[in-house]
């Protein structure tokens, strides 16, 4: 079953409950920059998120350099944001817990 695209009010409601996620100008994706203590923490985060993404059958667009992981989430089949994006974002936030330096939280 194809995921249903969320309307602007539902997207705003989800974003209000989340920290650090930013809505793209076109409203079709959300973005967050994660900064970790080192490369090992960043890679560990990505590994945990990859397993969660596979279970959801919903995969992030991400970019990693050393301790930085920039993530963009969107549901391409729906041409915008769906519940899957916010489920994966929440799992990513949980995966980042304890891995980021205090001054970067």
Give a written overview of the molecule.
The protein is an alpha+beta fold. 39% of the residues lie in helices and 18% in strands. It has 3 helices and 4 strands. The protein has helices at 8-16, 39-56, 83-96; strands at 22-23, 30-35, 61-65, 68-73. A 4-stranded antiparallel β-sheet has the order 1-2-4-3, with helices on one face. Helix 2 (39-56) runs antiparallel to helix 3. The chain starts with 7 loop residues before the first helix and ends in a 9-residue tail after the last helix. The relative contact order is 0.24. The model has no long low-confidence stretch (mean pLDDT 92).
How many E-type strands? 4
| Mean residue pLDDT | 92
Could you give the distance between the termini? 37 Å
Instruction: Please work out how many helical segments DSSP would assign.
Output: 3
Question: Uncertain runs with pLDDT below 50, 5 residues or more?
Answer: none
Helical residue percent?
Answer: 25-40%
Largest beta-sheet characterization: 4 strands, antiparallel
By helix and strand content, what is the structural category? alpha+beta
General form? globular
Placed side by side, the strands forming the largest sheet appear as 1-2-4-3
Output the radius of gyration: 13 Å
Strand content: 15-25%
* Element string (H = helix, E = strand): HEEHEEH
Enzyme class: lyase
Protein name: Putative pterin-4-alpha-carbinolamine dehydratase
EC number: 4.2.1.96
Catalytic activity: (4aS,6R)-4a-hydroxy-L-erythro-5,6,7,8-tetrahydrobiopterin = (6R)-L-erythro-6,7-dihydrobiopterin + H2O
């Amino acid at each position: 079953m194809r995921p249903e695209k969320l309307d602007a009010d539902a997207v705003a409601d989800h974003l209000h409950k989340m920290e650090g996620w930013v809505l793209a100008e076109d409203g079709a994706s959300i973005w967050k920059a994660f900064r970790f203590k080192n490369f090992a923490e960043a890679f560990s985060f990505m590994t945990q998120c990859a397993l969660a993404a596979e279970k959801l059958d919903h995969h992030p667009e991400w970019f990693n350099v050393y301790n930085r992981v920039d993530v963009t989430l969107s549901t391409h089949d729906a041409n915008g944001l769906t519940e899957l994006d916010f489920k994966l974002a929440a799992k990513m936030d949980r995966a980042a817990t304890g891995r980021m330096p205090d001054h970067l939280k």
